[in-house]
Amino acid sequence: MSKQKKTTAPVNQAELISLYRKALLGGMTLAALESKIERHLERLSAADEIETEVSDQEITTIKKRIPLPVRVGAALVPIVLLFVGLFLVGSAVFPILGSYVNAIPQLQAAELTSPVPQEQVMELTPVVVSEMAEVVPKERGFAFQPEIIDTELDYTNLLNWFSQDTLPQLADTESDSEIVEYTVDIPKIDVQNARVKVGGTNLNEGLIAYPGTALPGEFGSPVIFGHSVLRQFYNPSEKNPRRYNSIFSYIMTLSKGDEIFITTPDGVRYTYIVQEKTEVKPSDVQILTQKYDTKSLKLVTCTPEGTYLRRGVITAQLVSQS
Hints:
The chain contains three helices and eight strands; from the N terminus they run H-H-H-E-E-E-E-E-E-E-E. The protein is α+β, with helices and mostly antiparallel strands.
């Protein structure tokens, strides 16, 4: 029960003057009048205090009528919401920090000093990029004309994965196959019967094998692109209509020796074994390079998952077909 300090109730100035006038006209002394007014104010203050105490009692009674679980729950709700918020923020931030601390130093490919910009360098193999970004005369200190983008890029569109306005074009390769679509299975990360389309740009509809790279079983490397999101949203189930939005979120967890299977429409099944994984800059088109002395496979996604900072590349070797 709360106790309040007695306060003097406010009195209207005109009423006070009127009371003084009547008292003096009635023969009452000034001291008696002030004493009477003070007693009256004390009674008013006491009445206010009693009313406040009654009000506090009513509030306490109402609180006691509320069930204990409800009172405890109401007290815990702000704390629970705080921890939920911290968990959501942490689940988004910690994978990125962990990637910088642990993964990136191990995965970054060694960079050689070269007088040619890195985005224009390809390995000296038969297939190279035939169209590079147009070099702009040096102006105001820039070797290339800077491009200012005021909109957020949509990385479900493969066109936005490269620094050029158009996809890099690979030299034509001769192939007797007319395969335009096949499937990929990666048992370790629960990817089953994932559709791979040769060419195209929409990663929401399926994985994309970069046009001009090798077909399964051929010398060279099929280079397959897939989208990734934060791992807590990973759902590669065939029943998920948005499975391709997260389908490559876990490929950078693959280890040397893990299996990847590719099945073509004619029923041929190719088995690839993971050999290595690395990360490169978004402008690095070397990931499209074809080496015709081996039959391999490359899987590419954005890393750390849920960001577009770098490109993660899984390289696997063909070991059998059936």
